[in-house]
Design a protein that fits this description.
This protein has 223 residues and is an alpha+beta fold. The protein is 29% helix and 23% strand. The chain binds zinc ion (ZN).
Length: 223
């Protein structure tokens, strides 16, 4: 009996030692479990970050109501012949916003950047050429009848939504490209319109860029 009792107490003592010795292990486990939960929580918060809008429409009216663009030429292939030689081309290198849809109203910067040039060219009319820090280029052309319709000057920094000028012509043509593309026509006064007839990747769809950005921010684009 005594032997059995001592064996039992030895067993109990051993179990107690093992349990006691393993306390730090539980502690580590609990701590690591806590750390993991913390990491997971952190990841979740990151996902919920609000997308900062960096692009916007050039006219306020585009935010206010759904506008169907019927009269102006959209970006890409159109039914208007824009060049006959050496081959016929139906490619439109920008997006036309007509006064019948947006009114003779203020033109706002669609993206932040620095005004590279304000000038007149026979094919572009008076135009505003903006270069952005992130490598995009915006060209506002054909919409300004007088130099007084343009509110910015060369070298000026413009913010998204800043007033560029006022549409006084029949429409404004908004062109967007990247600085890493060959978009400058060096033969014609270095105007920003090289390959205006050719869909070779130089010109990007302005509405797509603007609306993709608005969509990321949970806003409702017009199209
Ligand atoms: Zn156009």
């Amino acid at each position: 009996m005594k032997k059995a009792e001592s064996k039992l107490s030895l067993c109990i003592a051993l179990i107690a030692i093992i349990l006691f010795a393993s306390i730090p292990l539980w502690h580590i486990d609990l701590n690591s479990a806590r750390t993991q939960t913390h990491v997971v929580k952190k990841k979740k918060t990151k996902k919920r970050e609000i997308h900062q809008v960096t692009w916007g429409y050039p006219f306020k009216r585009l935010y206010e109501k759904k506008i169907k663009f019927k009269s102006g030429q959209k970006f890409g292939q159109t039914d208007v012949i824009r060049r006959y030689y050496p081959t016929k081309s139906y490619f439109h290198d920008g997006y036309d916003l007509g006064f019948s849809e947006v009114g003779h109203s203020t033109v706002y910067a669609v993206h932040a950047g620095t005004v590279h040039r304000v000038k007149y060219a026979p094919s572009l009319g008076l135009y505003v050429w903006v270069i952005s820090d992130d490598g995009y280029v915006e060209i506002y052309q054909e919409g300004f009848l007088s130099i007084t319709d343009i509110y910015v000057k060369k070298g000026q920094k413009v913010k998204l939504g800043q007033k560029i000028g006022k549409l006084t012509g029949s429409h404004i043509h908004l062109g967007i490209t990247k600085t890493d593309k060959d978009y400058i026509d060096k033969k014609h006064d270095h105007t920003p319109c090289k390959y205006y007839w050719k869909d070779n990747g130089t010109w990007l769809n302005p509405m797509k860029i603007i609306e993709n950005d608005l969509r990321k921010a949970g806003k409702d684009p017009i199209q």
